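queue> holo job accepted (pyridoxal-5'-phosphate)
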Amino acid sequence: MRHITQSSKLAGVRYDVRGPILQEAERLERAGETILKLNIGNPAPFGFEAPPEIVEELRRALPEAQGYSDSRGVLPAREAVARHYTELGVGAASGGISPDDVYLGNGVSELISLVLQALVSPGDEILVPAPDYPLWTAQVTLTGGRAVHYPCDESNGWMPDLEAIEALITPRTTGIVLINPNNPTGTVYSAELVRGFAALAERHGLVLLADEIYDRILYDGVVHEHAALHVSETLCLTFSGLSKAQRVAGYRSGWLVVSGDRAIAHDFLEGLTLLANMRMCANVPAQYAIPVALGREAAAGGASIDALCAPGGRLLEQRNAAHRLLSEIPGVSCVLPGGAMYLFPRLDPAIYPIDDDQRFVIGLLRATRVLVTNGRGFNLPTPDHLRFVSLPEVPVLTEAIGRIAGYLETVRVG
Ligand SMILES: Cc1ncc(COP(=O)(O)O)c(C=O)c1O
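queue> job finished
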């Protein structure tokens, strides 16, 4: 009998955030266990309600959203995105941003796929941070390209080093990915570092791929710098959407803004439009939520994203609690995240000698019923980190991290 096998294109493609560890958690759940899930950045299951006017707008739009839209998205939504970035100052030095520069997608995830399929030829290299949001590495690999990981330095707050990045550039390098604020580290890059990325991309003619989906989830007065502000002599592609700050990940609504020197990129943009056409369009009702989301601060009272990140707000208080609880465990250290909704603690290998962090996390799950993700799932080269989401309420975080502390005590050496 002929076996049905997966495409050879999938060789080396990994997405461990939803891999074997999650499968084990689902097996335990089927067996009647309750699992505390600290593994996926999905705000809704943790009681983060979307701004009501976004839900209302989606409901209102249903009757008029029955047909396919323009493959780049409905005009009012693309106008709203173009206006938003224009107001931020993007495009000021490179001919402005118009609705034609905006592509809407089924979340940033789909747009990452479309862009990399359109950009990367087999053998091309894309510079990707390590650790990264692993979809980037997976999609580069799927295109037949090579994700070349540039390290981020934990001892320097997970900041990458531009000179080290520059040393990795070869004639096959076509793009560089910047994830800011970062998943999984939560690091927010300084304006100077962002300018440095832009200058490096311009110097080497690389496409700057700026994943800024957490640009409004910021703590302690940290300011986010948009990469596109500093690009005029090469192409900049900015990705964002409604999944995180607006808490409607299930609507699958994201955008891509093309800025910088578009004249040099006609051929690529033609390819991108071809791929956008081939999938017809993004989910149309969810596109209508975009103008509302980008209009005035979309949310009632204390539920706005700014309020959630301010003192007394859930996201900030949970980040603080999780960081404190993790840092209190012997041999565990954690850079304080300046943004996003994750923590990426290190387990000192002298105290916790872990060879295989996926196996370690499965053991942890079986013993504690707490689900986290292993650091290597984010393309970190060493097996000594875990990633937590800081979305659960403080009592749940306290319970989960308490159980983890108890487990670590049993596996500690020395
Ligand atoms: C850095 C980063 N980019 C993109 C995405 C995907 O977002 P979307 O829901 O818009 O597909 C995520 C989701 O966790 C993410 O963390």
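queue> The mean pLDDT is 95.
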